[in-house]
Amino acid sequence: MSPLDPQFVQNILKSSIEANLQQLLIKILPTLDSKTTGKIYQIIADNLKQQDEIYDQSQARINKTYKFLDENIAKFCKDSNVSGMQT
Fold this sequence. Notes:
Blueprint: H1 6-28, H2 34-80
Helix pairs in contact: 1-2
C-alpha cells in the first residue's frame, strides 16, 4: 500500500477522527456509570491497538522505502563511478 493509496489515507483520517472522539469521551467518562465506562474503555483500547498496527505498517513501509533508496543510490553511485559520494 503506497502512501497515496486511498485506503492508507482513509486509515489515517479514521485514526485521527477516532483519536479526537476518544479525547472527548475521556472528558465525559466521569459522568457515566461504570458499565458504560467499561465498554468505552474497551473501545478505546481496541482503537489504540488498531492505531498501533497502522503505525507499525506505516513504519514498515517507510523502512522499506529507505532500504530501497539506500540500495539503489549505492548501486547508482557504483554503476556511475561517482567519486566523492558517501553511501
